[in-house]
Specification:
four-stranded mixed beta sheet; binds glutathione; 9 helices; Glutaredoxin; 4 strands; globular; 221 residues; alpha+beta
């Protein structure tokens, strides 16, 4: 690790959005002191954490002298601007727009549908039982990944990774969704390009070290 600002990260072992920040920190040789927010115990909705993020969601990154940063995509952009090497975005405007579009497709249009607060609402007020919740999860993971597969398979900018031949924010987001799907034992068939990119990302330490089951608090960690 290089010497870095004393970041603090509000985190939980298995979350997709926190995984993204851990991968970005690892790629850039940065570290953060983690504060554990137990999502299973509902700590994200406790008075203490709501002062950090009134939305009751992690991650939150505390940078010395500033209010907590929330939203994983904003945190990735902040880390990329303040520690530019290796870059998480391409050098050209069209490339950056494509990478941000892939990342947002997963962070904004896929992942929010399967977070604990949505589960809580649907199972307590929406009449969902376990089977209905599982069907919901499978539907939204499939929708997000099949749309991404179609893009990756047809757009010329796809390379060894989601965009070209270097890791970008798009790969971090893809891996963060795959990590949480594995946790729920959900898979989506017929996504050969995604499968190839995931296998390549898995060869990198930055992703391996961020794996949920390797984090403090994980069962067996
Ligand atoms: N769009 C947010 C999502 C944050 C989020 O929903 N995080 C989940 C964990 S992956 C969470 O803390 N959920 C708590 C809850 O839903 O109660 C981001 O990308 O940071």
């Amino acid at each position: 690790m290089t010497s870095s600002p004393s970041y603090e990260l509000y985190a939980f072992w298995r979350t997709s959005a926190t995984y993204r920040v851990r991968v970005a920190l690892n790629l850039k040789g940065l570290s953060a002191q983690e504060h554990y927010i137990d999502l299973d115990a509902g700590e994200q909705r406790g008075e203490a954490f709501l002062k950090i993020n009134p939305l009751g969601a992690i991650p939150a990154l505390v940078v010395p002298g500033a209010p907590p940063l929330t939203q994983s995509l904003a945190i990735l952009e902040y880390l990329d601007e303040t520690t530019p090497t290796p870059p998480l975005l391409p050098s050209d405007a069209l490339g950056r727009a494509r990478v941000r579009s892939i990342a947002a497709g997963l962070a904004a249009d896929t992942h929010p549908l399967v977070v604990p607060r949505v589960k809580k609402y649907l199972t307590t007020k929406g009449g969902f039982d376990d089977a209905a919740w599982r069907a919901w999860q499978i539907n939204w993971f499939s929708t997000g990944l099949q749309a991404l597969e179609q893009r990756l398979a047809t757009e010329g900018a796809t390379g060894a990774y989601c965009h070209g031949h270097a890791i970008t924010m798009a790969d971090i987001l893809l891996m963060s969704i795959v990590a949480v799907m594995r946790m729920f034992k959900i898979s989506v068939d017929d996504t050969p390009v995604i499968d190839r990119i995931v296998a390549l990302c898995e060869t990198h330490d930055a992703f391996a070290k961020a794996a949920p089951f390797r984090q403090v608090g994980a069962p067996g960690a």
